[in-house]
Amino acid sequence: MSDPEEITLQPIGVLHTPFRVTEGMPIQSARSNLSGSAEVYEPFAAGLEGIEEFSHIYLIYRLHRVETPPSLKVTPFLDNREHGVFATRFPRRPNALGISVVRLVSRDGQTLHFIGADMLDGTPLLDIKPYIPEFDVFEVEKSGWYKRRAYS
What we know:
Blueprint: E1 13-16, E2 35-40, E3 56-62, E4 73-74, E5 83-84, E6 97-108, E7 111-115, E8 123-130, H1 133-136, H2 144-147
Antiparallel strand pairs: 1-2, 1-8, 2-7, 3-6, 3-8, 4-5, 6-7
């Protein structure tokens, strides 16, 4: 396999949460009622204009403390069977990227306060996007292994 063109991502900020270790951390933001904040670095602060007009936002971040090498076959948290990594939300991924939809509570200058923390404290923030129901809600016909999962 040839090397694809190199991609360099620059963090735009850092996420602050109550989680210093992964043990006890929620596995999805929708299952978390815990607070967190996104501190956006000064050079990117102007990009926050208008964000407070949205109730929910996507946070896209680097899973910076995934210690084991990526794997194409994984056993996700909610099942006891192995699946392809791209059919799961398991963190041990080739590019170690995470995404969470969180409820935006407030903006204080360069800091966004949110509910739905499911990431480690100090996680590098790569991007923020508004959640827009007309674009982001789908009627689902299939949910793969998740519908047949071992742990509900």
